[in-house]
Amino acid sequence: MISTTSNANDSTNTVLVPVDDLQVGAICRTPIEDEMGRLLLGTGTRITNEVIDGLRERGIEELTVNAEEADVLSNRGKSGAAKAKPKSTREKDASHAPGRDPTKWIKGVPLKDALVNRHHEPIDLTRRRTLQGHVKMARSKFEEIRLALTERKMQTVEALSDLSGAFASAMVDDHDQTIGEVVACNTEMSLTDRSVKLGVLGMAIGTELDLDGPSVLEIGMAGLLHDIGLYSMDPAYSVPGRGAFSEEETWEYRKHPVISANSLREVSDIPHSVLLAIEQVHEQYNGEGYPFGLEGKRIHIYARILNVCDTYLRLTLGTGFRKALVPHDALGFILHQARYGSFDPQVIHALLRTKSLFPLGSRVELANGKWADVIRRPVEGYACPVLQLSDGERFDMQENPNEVVQPTCDPQRNQGRLSIDAMKNIRWNPADELFFDEE
């Protein structure tokens, strides 16, 4: 049964479509949100039995959709008795809709509740182009910020706040594709690209920890801005994957978190929590970090999250004296190092749930010699992700649990492996550079 109503603030008619009436195979042409503006189904979502079950599990009985799209999504059309759409006690505020005004996402509501379930969907090429556009925009905005810092005319970071919201909106619409494509390691990585990866991965972990929308956006902003002070230092310090520093250079380099925070203190639209996170990103949970040697819960939660993300990105980025670790080995190495208390245990668990043992965007090899890319996290556990084979075929490890999979080096990314013995025997302080002999 479909009932028609008119939006008093918009000339567009909307109708209520019962979830039970959704047509399997239909495709959403426009985003569908709930009364609070939280995204339920994104543009291009294909209606499947799993999508319908997911809506039911969230207690959603009806969807408010554009009248022109109702016949496409419903298997009953507009026949049947109509019922009036119940009026909300508060009008739906467009500012609550992800992607419209992300800075006003609802406080106290875990962003995780808004994630669209796309586990059974393939990679969307349109979404890929959108994400690439966001990264390109970030490069442009960072150049503007660099010039503003140089000329001491830094007044606002609104553009980066909007950018953080854009990536968060993409993550809500498709968590796995956003993380897999944005955070994936590159052969070369500028300071801007690395900051984008850090911010996006940090937002994903914050979401996994059940933080609300505004908090997740602040993590993204902190990740984007955390190394901003490097723009006013020796250019050699701002090259990710650079060679080892001398003792004097290390001393100078470790000043950059304070320099970054200080350069932003006069900017009115930066929350205090973001400044704290920027200053504390390189503090370690066991007190062995810098610049102040803080430990445990004295370190802001945003910084504890971003510290783990920073470690992961450093391991998956090659340097002048070592190859990049394949993502699987980087994650395994972090798990081994966690026994020394370097990281917040809750953040480590969230990283594992976010990336899985075979991280999103990484490459694996099957027992038959075929290679595949990891495109979706496991529904349960950590070891059975969804793969996309080299011929484009989808392969769900959950349905093939006995298939042997092992991580493999991507020849285009200068990657290396780290043995289990090496992971166990190396004692590493993430505040320092890592040296090891690759296999």
Please tell me about this protein's structure.
InterPro entries: HD/PDEase_dom, HD_GYP_dom. This is HD-GYP domain-containing protein. It comes from Rhodopirellula baltica (strain DSM 10527 / NCIMB 13988 / SH1). The chain is of the alpha+beta class and 439 residues long. The chain folds into two domains: 3-80, no CATH class; 125-425, Hypothetical protein af1432 (Orthogonal Bundle). Helix content is 38%, strand content 10%. It has helices at residues 49-57, 67-73, 125-150, 158-173, 175-182, 191-208, 213-225, 247-253, 256-264, 272-280, 301-315, 327-337, 345-355, 420-425; strands at residues 3-6, 13-18, 32-33, 39-41, 62-66, 324-325, 363-366, 371-376, 386-389, 394-396, 405-407, 415-416. It is globular.
